[in-house]
């Protein structure tokens, strides 16, 4: 069994050539040499000489391929970097995409990192920029007064009241305003001093996290904070995953918990990479707490705001989730608002600065890693770590990250559940599906004359109450 695993892992390394990690090839070659020695000294009456010879030949063929790779010249770090036709003596000039280089730099990446991703030296990149008359200076800050900045931050804070300075920076970048983090902090003190103190109390201490690069490992988890109010359905997860794949490409591996909502993604990953690749790594939520950092920002920036609204409605007897009119009107009025807020959170999070990554944004980290993978030649293959690294039980874990809330840990499944609900009725009985599509459409038809998407000046509460009254009157007159 152990030898079979070594052979499978070695074949995966061979399939990844020439883009395999050097140490992965060396490790597999050492292990194959050990198997070869065992086969030469094997004395097993149950195996014929021809069977032993076939196994030995397979080991030698695989080992020879790895040995040739290791003994050959190292693969160039710029195999995809184009050059111009020769125009005289000396080496041909590189044909660099300077617009892309400036784009990567403006995201917050240093020129040394941009040059490395493009497969050239930093001085070479500087020379190309100089010949093209392009500046290598930092992206200039937006010219905006303190009063105008305060107005923008107040406007954002109304919809994202728990956003701190880093996330606020991402919101401003998303609308084209580039200012220093110091000015944002000063503005928050001017317009929301109490909020600053509240947010300071919940700061997470960051730790460094490392995988090979972009698309090596994706973390996934379902968020159920708004589930009590009908904003949850497990089948959404697989659809969102495939949408992400269509934008960013296939990840090499995924890490998720044992929740039923992850089953569809696990099937997709295994179909793409095969079981031997360890393409979907499942465990308890405590093994995927890297994701908890992301959820903390989402909760602060979006979900907690709506939880407070829904609890306010219930506390004032304006919302009863057992009442279908209340339940469906709540969904119709607030689902677009929640989605808009989440979209804004995505934009701001992708553009916020991560301290442990040299204050680079997630977008800058991803794009630079992607450019590097393209120029190294492995972006369209397997962008992940070697199988031995990924087989480590701690792969993709962050033991210093914050644990999920206790209420979530109490409901955390300890093993996969592959039971599938046979129909919508079964989903509703299990609490997975709350609002039926036909039911929602019926209510939308009744409310067609109302502009529920407009700003009512009360975070959607007035529109919700008006919708409940209108639907109730409609049913009473039938």
How would you describe what is shown here?
It is built from 19 helices and three strands. It is 55% helix and 2% strand. The chain has helices spanning 2-16, 22-40, 49-71, 98-106, 111-118, 122-131, 146-159, 165-174, 181-200, 236-248, 263-273, 290-315, 324-350, 362-376, 387-390, 406-410, 424-429, 437-446, 461-476, and strands at residues 217-219, 253-256, 280-282. It folds into four domains: 2-71; 86-140, Arc Repressor Mutant, subunit A; 146-200; 217-410, no CATH class. Residues 233-367 form the Integrase core domain. Pfam families: rva_4.
Give a brief rundown of this model:
About 55% of the residues lie in helices and about 0% in strands. The protein has about 475 residues and is mostly helical. A three-stranded parallel sheet has the order 1-2-3, with helices on one face.
Strand content: under 5%
- Report how far the terminal alpha carbons are from each other: 71 Å
In this structure, how is the largest beta sheet organized?
Answer: 3 strands, parallel
Q: What integer value in Å does the Rg equal?
A: 28 Å
SSE string, helices as H and strands as E: HHHHHHHHHEHEHEHHHHHHHH
What's the multimeric state?
A: single chain
| Class based on secondary structure composition and strand pairing | mainly alpha
Spatial strand order of the main sheet: 1-2-3
* Anisotropy-based shape: flat
What number of domains? Answer: 4
Number of helices: 19
Number of distinct beta strands: 3
Which regions are unreliable across 5 or more consecutive residues at pLDDT < 50? 200-208
Mean pLDDT: 80
- What percent of residues adopt helix (DSSP H or I)? 40-55%
């Amino acid at each position: 069994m152990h030898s079979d695993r070594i052979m499978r892992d070695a074949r995966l390394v061979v399939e990844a050539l020439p883009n395999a990690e050097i140490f992965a090839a060396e490790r597999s070659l050492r292990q194959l040499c050990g198997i070869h020695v065992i086969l030469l000294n094997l004395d097993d009456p149950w195996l014929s000489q021809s069977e032993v010879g076939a196994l030995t030949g397979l080991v030698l063929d695989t080992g020879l391929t790895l040995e040739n790779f290791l003994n050959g010249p190292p693969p160039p770090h710029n195999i995809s970097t184009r050059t111009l036709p020769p125009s005289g003596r000396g080496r041909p000039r590189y044909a660099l995409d300077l617009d892309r280089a400036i784009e990567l730099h403006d995201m917050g990446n240093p020129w040394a990192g941009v040059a490395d991703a493009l497969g050239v030296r930093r001085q070479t990149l500087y020379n190309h920029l100089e010949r093209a008359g392009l500046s290598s200076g930092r992206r200039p800050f937006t010219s905006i007064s303190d009063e105008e900045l305060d107005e923008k931050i107040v406007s954002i804070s109304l919809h994202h009241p728990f956003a701190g300075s880093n996330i606020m920076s991402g919101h401003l970048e998303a609308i084209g305003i580039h200012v220093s983090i110091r000015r944002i902090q000063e503005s928050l003190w001017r317009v929301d001093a109490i909020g600053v103190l509240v947010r300071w109390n919940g700061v997470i201490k960051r730790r460094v996290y490392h995988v090979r690069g972009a698309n090596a490992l994706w973390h996934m988890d379902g968020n159920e904070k708004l589930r009590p109010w009908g904003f949850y359905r497990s089948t959404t997860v697989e659809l969102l995953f495939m949408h992400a794949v269509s934008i960013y490409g296939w990840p090499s591996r995924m890490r998720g918990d044992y929740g039923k909502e992850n089953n569809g993604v696990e099937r997709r990953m295994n179909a793409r990479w095969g079981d031997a690749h360890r393409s979907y790594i499942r465990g308890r939520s405590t093994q995927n707490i890297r994701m908890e950092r992301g959820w903390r920002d989402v909760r602060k920036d979006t979900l907690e705001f709506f939880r407070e609204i829904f609890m306010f409605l219930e506390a004032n007897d304006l919302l009863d989730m057992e009442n279908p009119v209340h339940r469906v009107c709540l969904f119709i009025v607030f689902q677009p608002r929640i989605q808009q807020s989440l979209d804004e959170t995505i934009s701001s999070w992708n553009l916020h600065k991560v301290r442990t990554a040299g204050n680079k944004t997630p977008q800058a980290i991803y794009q630079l890693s992607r450019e590097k993978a393209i120029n190294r030649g492995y972006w369209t293959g397997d962008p992940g770590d070697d199988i031995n690294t990924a087989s480590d039980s701690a792969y993709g874990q962050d033991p210093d990250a914050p644990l999920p809330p206790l209420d979530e840990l109490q409901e955390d499944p300890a093993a996969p559940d592959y039971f599938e609900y046979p129909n919508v009725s079964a989903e509703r009985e299990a609490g997975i599906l709350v609002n039926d599509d036909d039911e929602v459409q019926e209510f939308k038809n009744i409310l067609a004359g109302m502009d529920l998407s407009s700003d009512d000046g009360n975070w959607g509460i007035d529109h919700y109450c008006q919708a409940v009254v209108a639907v109730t009157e409609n049913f009473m007159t039938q």
